[in-house]
Amino acid sequence: MDMLTRRRFLVASGVVGAATLATGAVGYRLSHILETAGDRPSDARTLVLVTLYGGNDGLNTVIPYADPAYHDARPDLAYRPEEVLHLDKSLGLNPGMTGFKRLFDAGRLAIVRGIGYPKPDHSHFRSMDIWQTGQPDRPGNTGWLGRWLDATGGDPRHAVSFEPVLPPVLAGATTAGAAVALREGGVSGAGVPARGPAPATLAGFGTAAPGEPPLQARAARAYADLVSVDAMVGKLAAAPAPSSGAATDDNQPKATGTGGRTALSAQLDLVARCVEANVATRAFSVSLGGFDTHADEKIAQRRQLSELDSAVTAFADRMARTDAGRKVVVAVYSEFGRRVRANASDGTDHGTASDLFVLGSPVRGGFYGRQPSLTDLDDGDLKFTTDFRDAYASLLDGVLHTDPGKVLGGWSGRIDGLLA
User: Domains of the chain: which residue ranges?
Assistant: First the structure.
């Protein structure tokens, strides 16, 4: 994708303005990131943010297997106690998450329960906008990591996305992170985007609904623009595969909204290469889609969670072998959880509070936050017990060594004890 096309897309999305485009998000190559090798303080930590697009069902991820209300609400969708990977006498992990179970037992995985925000929104676009901007009270057009980049006056290469399009979380007011796209079989040497969903799928996302909120309409315009961008790109040239071997896009699940266009393992392989090269990047953004499980959820979600588990635990084990890797913290989140009660299609509909995973050598493993009640509900939804800004503040402070108040509008909450 040439610079003018990329700028046209970003302007259409409304995520960033002209000042940002002048200083970042213009299609970096992996070689541009590797040029910064060795250019970072020896004690600096690295944040890897993993976005699960579609709204992951937290109740079938961290499972309250001992609660009768869980089984009553979803009799066919619930996991039996003997199927669950037990973490304690009441909670366990989805059976597809054996690697996460191992990390939890080793004290390297923290699970933040009941995470959400006030006045939750069931829209994919609006809720993801809230999570990525860190501004639940009002519409925002800068991401929380983009504002961190603004505050540090950093090179765009200090915050890198291995996703097809720069995610809003890395867009600041005066600068933006670097987008290094993947394509089938490897890394784009020239910033060529990954091959994504079919044009008809994107066109569907690009159709605005009458009367929808401005932010959702803005997202629709972005997808409509992406259809024309993909048409301009045409046939992609072949490229050598990364050392770990990336699955082709035809085998990857498609997300609702975005994400899921390149194997998570391939994205994390590139992050690992950058960390091991001791590049200047302090924050990476990767993603996995396909969590919008309105029907036949049990098999589909377990497949997605198994992919997450395999990719993230392999990355964590690799990071544990080097000094630079032992300074990496991974945070995994989704835009919302699902309804407590199963629907008529053996799936779940858009809900609210869910779980957030934080892992890595600096992490003090265990449970954080209070488990939401399955009987004291808000119109069928879980009531959140931990504000997601508490998690962001802890990551900004403990990983990026930045005053969270300057990035999160004065927010002072924390998740005590999460990071060493």
Answer: 3-195+242-407
Encoded amino acid at 366, one letter: G
Residue 139 has what pLDDT?
73
SS (H, E, C) 108-149: CEEEEEEEECCCCCCCHHHHHHHHHHCCCCCCCCCCHHHHHH
Cβ-contact 386, 115 below 8 angstroms:
yes
What element of type H or E holds 187? strand 186-187
Start-to-end C-alpha separation, the chain = 42
Helix/strand number for the chain, H first, E second: 13, 14
% helix, strand, coil for the chain, step of 5 = 35, 15, 50
Q: Residue 163: which of 115, 117, 226 has the closest Cα?
A: 226
Closest CA to 97 of 245, 298, 303: 303
Is the distance from CB of 242 to CB of 271 less than 8 angstroms? no
All residue ranges of the chain with pLDDT < 70 are: 1-27, 182-261
Decide: residue 362, CB within 10 A, 0-12 exposed, 13-18 middle, 19+ buried: middle
pLDDT at 227: 42
- Pairing state between β 85-86 and 354-359: unpaired
Q: Is residue 372 classed exposed, middle or buried when 0-12, 13-18 and 19+ CB atoms within 10 A define those classes?
A: buried
Cα separation, 263 vs 269, in Å, equals: 10
CB 276, CB 291: distance < 8 Å: no
| Lookup result for tokens 């079919």 | 198
Q: DSSP string covering 287-326, please? A: EE-----SSSHHHHHHHHHHHHHHHHHHHHHHHTTSTTGG
- Provide the β-strand partners of residue 30: none
pTM over 0.70: yes
Q: What are phi and psi of 284, to 5 degrees?
A: -120, 145
Residue position matching structure tokens 């040029």? 35
Q: How far apart are CA 105 and CA 89, in angstroms?
A: 14
Cα dihedral value 169, 279, 357, 250, nearest 10: 70
The architecture in CATH of the region 3-195+242-407 reads 3-Layer(aba) Sandwich (3.40)
pLDDT for the residue numbered 197: 44
Nearest to 78 by CA among 353, 253, 301: 301
| DSSP state, residue 373 | P
